[in-house]
Amino acid sequence: MQHWWSLKLREAKNNKHSYILLAPYMVLFTVFTVVPVLISILLSFTYFNMLEFPRFIGWQNYTRLFLEDDIFLIAVKNTLLFAVITGPVSYIACFVFAWIINELSPKLRALMTLIFYAPSISGNVFFIWLMVFSGDRYGIANGFLIKWGFILEPIQWLKTEELILPIIIVVQLWLSLGTGFLAFIAGLQIVDKTLYEAGAVDGIRNRWQELWFVTLPSMRPQLMFGAVIQLTTAFAVADVSIALAGFPSVNYAAETIVTHLMDFGTTRFEMGYASSIATVLFMIMVGTNLMIQKLLRKVGE
Amino acid sequence: MTSSFIVRKKRVNRSFWGSFSLFILLAAFGAFMVLPLIYAINNAFKPLDEIFMFPPTLFVRNPTLFNFIDLINLLGNSWVPFSRYVFNTVFITGMGIIGHVLLASAAAYPLAKHKFPGKNFMFTVVVLSLMFTPAVTAIPTYMIMSWIGLIDTYWAVIVPAFAYSLGLYLMKQFMEQIPDALLEAAKLDGASEYRIFWSIVMPNVKPAWMTLIILLFQMLWGSDGNGFIYSEQLKSLHYASNQIVQGGIARAGAAAAVALILMSVPITLFVFSQSRIIETMATSGMKD
C-alpha cells in the first residue's frame, strides 16, 4: 500500500507541468461548482435563514417537501412534463433537421443552420412571444384569429391556466436548437462517406434504411453529447416561464422546480429548504442523464 | 422536376416523395423558427401606431428610426447613461471570454494529451457538471461570493464564467485530434510543456477558440448579473432592456429597438464563425 502511494506520488511529481496547467481552471471549477454542490447537500439537512448559523434538522426539509408542500408537487409535475415533452421532442428535432439540412448544398446548409440556431443565441429575444401571445387585439395570435373570424373576443393566452404550459413548451422548443443541434450538424458531416457506398452495395434501398443502419450508429458519440445538452436544458425551464407567465404564475400553473427554488431562495430566504429543492433537482437531473447515457450506449450494438 | 437543385449530390435511392415531404417539413419548421425573429426585426422599425394596429402586421409599412431615437432619449434621461450599460456588458463579456479561453485551454491540454494520476477523475467530474443546471448551486455560490467579497462587482459574473465546464469539455475533445507526433517533435527540440502549449497547441485549436468565444458570448452578453450585482451603475444592457420591456405600451417601440440591438450582435458573430464552430463540434462526441 505504501509502495503504491510512493509510486503515485513519484508519477505525480513527474507530471507537475500537467497539474500547473490544470490548476487555475480546476481551482475555480472546484470553488464555483464542486464545493457549491456539496454545501447545497449539507444545507438541505439544516434550517438556515442566512442570519443565524445553520441548525441541523435531519430529513425534515425533505418530508416537508414531499408531504406538505403542494406547490412543490405542482412544480415537479410541470418540470417532468416539460422534460418529457421538450427533452425528446427537441432532441429528435435537432437530429431530424440537422439530417435534412445536411443534404442541402453548402450555401443553403449554412443559411438553414443559421435560421434554426439563431433563436437559441439571441439572448432574451424570446420576449417577442409576449407580443405574439399578448392578451389584447394587437397580439399576433389574437389579431389573426379575430380577423379570420375564429374568435370574437381576444384570448388571455398567458393568464389562462390551461394555455400557459403549452405556450411555454412551444417557446422552449423554439429556443432549443442550440449546441446539440450544431453537434449533430457537425457529426453528420464527418460520417465516413465510404460507409454509405458500402451500405449501398450491401443492399440498403432507401434513405430511411441508410439513416438507421449507417448514419445513426456512426454518430453515437454526438448523439450522447446532444442528449446531455438537450436533457439538461429541458429540466431547467425557468427564465421562459418567468418572462411569459410571471413569477409566481397564475395559480402556479407554470411553476417549475427551478422557480420554486428561486421562490424559497431569493424571496423567502429559507435557504435550508431551498437547498433541499436544489438537491432533489440535482439528483433528478444527474440520474436521468446517466440513465439516458446508458441507453444510448446500446444504439447500433 | 427533381429536387436535385437543392441536393448537394445524388446519393443512392432517394425517392422524390421522400425528398418532397422532408423539404415541406424543413420549410414549415424553418418558418416557425424565423418568423418571430423577422417580426422582432420589423417591430424595431415600426412607428408606435403600427405596433398597435389592428389587424397586426408582420412587416413594417412605414419604416422609421424613431424607436432608436426614443431609446437613446429614454436612456439619456435615466440616472445611469446608456453608454454605461453598454460598457458594463462589453467589459464583462470581454474579460470573461479572455479568461475562459486561456484557463480552459491550459486545462484542456494536459487532459487531452498527458497521462497522470487523477486525470480521469477530473474529467468525469467536469462531464457530470454538464448534467445539471447552475440554478442548483445558486445559493452556496452566493455565499462563497460574499465570503471572498465578489458580491456587487463585475467579477461576480466574470470569475465563475472562467470555469464554465462546456468550454473545457469541447476544447479537450478538440485537442485530442492534434497529432502526438507534432508534440513529440517539439519535445525533442527541447521545448518545455508551457512552450508546447502556447506555440504549438494554441495555434492549432483556433476553431475551438471561436466556439468557446461564441458560447461564452451568448452566456455573458445575455447576463443580467445573476443576482450578484446590485449597483445600478454596474448593471448590464440586458438588465436595462428588461426594465424597458416592463415599461409596457409607452415603451414598446424602444423595447423592440433594444431587442434588435441585443440579438444582432451574437447572430452576426455566429454568421462569421459558423464553419469553425461546426469544425469544433465535430469532435464534441462522448466516447464510451
Describe this structure as you would to a colleague.
The complex is a heterodimer of chains A (301) and B (288). Chain A is mainly alpha-helical. Chain A contains 15 helices and two strands. Chain A has one domain (63-296): Orthogonal Bundle (MetI-like fold), CATH 1.10.3720.10. Chain A has a two-stranded antiparallel ribbon with strand order 1-2. Chain B has two domains: 31-64, no CATH class; 79-281, MetI-like fold. The model of chain B is unreliable at 1-10 (pLDDT under 50). Chains A and B meet through helix 1, helix 2, helix 4, helix 5 and helix 6 of A and helix 1, helix 4, helix 5, helix 6 and helix 7 of B.
Q: Please give the alpha-carbon distance between the first and last residues of chain A.
A: 40 Å
The number of helical runs of chain A is: 15
The shape of chain A, in one word, is flat
- Domain unit count of chain A: 1
N-to-C order of helices and strands of chain B: HHHHHHHHHHHHH
**Biggest protein-protein contact in the assembly:** A-B, 114 and 105 residues
CATH class label of the largest domain in chain B: Mainly Alpha
Rg of chain B (CA only): 24 Å
What is the ordering of alpha helices and beta strands of chain A?
A: HHEEHHHHHHHHHHHHH
Shape category of chain B: globular
Radius of gyration of chain A: 24 Å
Find the structural class of chain A using helix and strand composition: mainly alpha
- Sheet having the most strands of chain A: 2 strands, antiparallel
| Oligomeric grouping of the chains | heterodimer
Uncertain spans of chain A, ≥5 residues at pLDDT below 50? none
Q: What is the overall number of helices of chain B?
A: 13
